Amino acid sequence: MKAVLATDLSAASEATIETETCLECLGRIGIEEIHLVTVIPSNVHAGMPGMDFEGRRERALERYRNVIEGAGFDVESHVVRGTPHRRIRGIAETIGASMTIVGSRGKSPLENRVIGSTARNLARTSETPLLVNRIERGVDEPEIVRKHLFQRMLYATDFSENADRAFDAFSYLRHATEEATLVHVETPKDPGLPEGEDPRQRLEELTDQLEEWGIDTRIELRQGDPADEILDVEAEYEPTTTLVGSRGHSRLRRLLLGSVSEDIVARAKGNVLLVPPRVA
Predict the structure, then answer these.
(1) Which domain holds residue 229?
(2) How far is CA 246 from CA 43, 58, 167, in A?
(3) For 41-81, how does the pLDDT look when each residue is reduced to its tens digit (9 = 90+)?
(4) Which residue in 62, 169, 242, 255 could disulfide with 154, CB within 3.0 to 4.6 Å?
(5) 100 and 167 both lie in a single domain
(6) What pLDDT digit, counting tens, does each position of 29-52 carry?
(7) What's the whole-model pTM score?
(8) Does any domain span residue 27?
(9) DSSP 104-128
(10) Contact 9/103 with Cβ under 8 angstroms?
(11) How many distinct helices (H) and strands (E) make up the chain?
């Protein structure tokens, strides 16, 4: 399996790359090849006096490359120019990546209402599973908030096709997962649940599958606003990563905020693994 690891060469990105437990978790789920990607924004001009942007980034990536190769991965580096989320997505699709990884320091309540971060834009548009690796906010030398990426998973489902696709990720996550919490938030009309079907029974069927793989599993049934309830469960159990499926968006929908998956990406305290719809 291949992964794209996007970095802006900040202290937050360095925390993602140099945390041994994170790299170990990636190895456990079958990642063998990592593509380091850094993007020079298109509004930064190569001809600015004294500014060798490509050279400086290539030298910085070489240090990261040595760390990741030392952990046993094959590594390729990419220094590209353009809009960050578009170039990261393009490289992931070109190499056939199984996962894209991007660090995020999270947002303040006001900033949550603003479109613009690479992580949020990738959450809207990525066609490969996106791991948003949460980094400490407001410190000079940030660290990963929850280092064992897939050790304790929170899986949120509305029983839709997209949620089922996210659950399929356990086929490889199970090699690094010890515990899982399955949560379903009941709404007046569950999109993926036939009328009269018991959601607890569906969750118990998923539990049986995970426990066959040796994963200790618990169930949470909630009522209320889906994003709020899922985030309450996250606060209670403190999973290392929350796993959720994305419905995808129309061209117009990409300009708006408000979906459950986007709320979770923006507001979760820990890592988030977002699995997009199957490409037609």
Answers:
(1) 152-275
(2) 31, 34, 12
(3) 766 555 544 455 566 667 778 888 888 888 899 999 888 88
(4) 242
(5) no
(6) 999 999 988 888 766 555 544 455
(7) 0.84
(8) yes
(9) E----TTGGG----HHHHHHHH-SS
(10) no
(11) 10, 10
